[in-house]
Request: fold
Amino acid sequence: MSGVRVVMPSEMSLLDGINSLRSVRKFKPDPIPEDQVRIILDSASKAASGSNTQPWEFVIVRDARVKARLKEPMLRTWLARLAGSTGMSPRMRDVYDEATEMLRNTEKVPVIIYCCVDLNRVGKSEEVRYASIYPAVQNLMLAAHAIGLATCLTVHGSTLTRGEPEVKKILGIPEHVKIACLIYLGHPSIRLGLPRRKPVENFVHNNRW
Ligand SMILES: Cc1cc2nc3c(=O)[nH]c(=O)nc-3n(C[C@H](O)[C@H](O)[C@H](O)COP(=O)(O)O)c2cc1C
Reply:
């Protein structure tokens, strides 16, 4: 595996990892060693992509000053979006409050990773573009989880109305590269239970809808 040795907690099988992955929004300040980031990115790069084009580009941000600059457009557009949302359930409100707090703490999160697609290296159809980056992002999150790190996927900075032009400018991301999503990465400072999801019977259709 490109010279990278993976030290996996032996008790975490792939299925254990998939079934226990959560979105963690509170992180310890401890830095993430370079070799761990390498393991995570190496795992991301093993994902499938349309015609094996591997159109992903990852921008790893560790510098707190850069993170603080990135936070400005992302937080501003998020708060504007929140101000326009009504009729939220209490549970949803809690998730949004935690999401806002994480965003406010962006510069304190050890590593943030912008997951991008090079539009020149992927098919023209939109479905292939995004379907060619999200498997890599999921691999990235599972690999982080497998080595004891925590992640939270967000779409901050990924569209015009979420501050993408400013984020791309700060990071020097070229015109033909699109931000797909953002991963917050660090050591978890809280322990979360298993994911709460609907039972399979609620969404599976056999032979026809
Ligand atoms: C497309 C997408 C966008 C998301 N955006 C945010 C976000 O902006 N802020 C955040 O804190 N979490 C975000 N999340 C994480 C979800 O809120 C989380 O997966 C969901 O609440 C279920 O929680 P769990 O992953 O801990 O089980 C996002 C997840 C996805 C897949």
